[in-house]
Amino acid sequence: MTAPSDSTPASEWWRTAVIYQIYPRSFADANGDGTGDLRGVISRLDHLQRLGIDALWLSPFYTSPMADAGYDVADYRSVDPQFGSLADADDLIAAAHQRRIRVIVDLVPNHTSDDHVWFREALASAPGSAARARYHFRDGRGPSGDQPPNSWQSVFGGSAWTRTQDPDGTPGQWYLHLFDSRQPDLDWSNPEVVEEFHDILRFWLDRGVDGFRVDVAHGLVKAEGLPEWDHGQELLEGATADGLRPPMWDQDGVHEIYRGWRRILDTYGDRILVAEAWVSPAERLAQYVRPDEMHQAFNFGFLCSGWRARPLREAITESLSANAAVGASSTWVLSNHDVIRHPTRLSIAPDGGLVNGIGPNDPQPDEEVGLRRGRAASLLMLALPGSAYLYQGEELGLPEHTTLPDEVRQDPSWFRHNGQVAGRDGCRVPIPWHSEAPAYGFSSTGRSWLPLPESYGRYAADRQVGVHGSTLELYREAIRIRRARRTATSTLAWTEGFDDTVVAFTLAEAGLLLVANLGADPVTLPHGVQVLLSSEQLDPQGRVPADVTVWCTISGAN
Ligand code: NOJ
Q1: What is the pTM of this model?
Q2: Which of 67, 116, 452, 527 has the fewest CB atoms within 10 Å, i.e. is most exposed?
């Protein structure tokens, strides 16, 4: 098992970084209108600094009609007024840098908003025009062209094609959208599209951002001729079914795009590209992080391993070796704005299933079990060699909001599934700062674009700061030890001698042993180890109870 060595050049900061995802709508609302904003982020940078993170990643804050919460960008070079202004973005970058926190922004290259000037121009132009050639416009099938050009499905449900109307009102061509109908896919075989995104990269690099999280990085290139694909299309599933590679995902041509981007980034110094690519197996994903492409890719194989020892061990082994083979470091993630928050997920779906949202009529999770597993999983993740991604609020142990009323839901997948699938709003609820304040301190007025559940008062940051054993203090301590002992550049070796339901490994250079008990019975620690950090108290016999992770110093190390 290899990991980048301690001789890693200091500038390769991403190899060991803890990166914190901010979903700007829901982080902190400075102007009281109920939607989080960039000035809100600035106002909470102290919290992030004390947490000890190295970088933050901001989900999209660009001008957008918000058909998919900002992942439908109308103008890539401006800030949506509900989040602030370009000047606020500049201030945020500067304020974060002052605190030695790097800033990664989201880039959405697979599709634009239907409000983007290019798409409006395309609709106003004739079939076969240069304006339409930036997207995938096709004639429909059937004598009157009223059947979609192929059978592809949208990730959010329904057909991946929508028919346009010609200026005189008659039905016209169809356009492709792998997501919502308000997110038309760009045609990346068009050099104009390639050039435009080079320019957008430079625009934000010039403003000082430290990198880009690349949305749907595995989707930009479609197989020649858009061949039929009769299999379904699940959100967050880019892998193959029956060994087949879907014609819309992970096509070999995407890599040339990222080589071009890398050449640009390299002229700016240590800036990074992070792929959101739902690709398996790990070797295939590792192709995105070859030395001349991106720097990192999210590890969804790890996220999907649930709370089961063997799949977790396998995912860790595969990631470390596949990444090492191309000279990249691994990344680890448990939660983000697309999946059920991990404390809740690990209690309702310990087998690793990715349930697409929970509604008030669904079976409800066990909050206590969830928090316990969530904390144990976080301690496991934060010890792994490589870089870790946190999602806002996980440092507070927040569960998913599982009882949101239908009428407040906004996720397009809820609408496109006709309300049959709850969707992702439950993990996007604003986060609680003050247990006694309106909207738990998210906004000064108590307004909030999604309601916070009552339970969030118990999780509010002010209830956890300085409280021994709180989830916030557990994360801080883990991040502090991680840095002090350089766990992220240590060599992981599996420890034998435990039950199959235990994940146990040593990090030799850090002098640490990690034991995570995913079984039902308490686990006895080896003789001579000292417990340094534990997700819960040990039992009176000093054993590791069920659903608990401990970090121990190995005898001889301090
Ligand atoms: C992945 C993003 O994380 C998700 O939120 C978004 O809906 C899709 N890409 C489409 O942009």
Answers
A1: 0.96
A2: 527
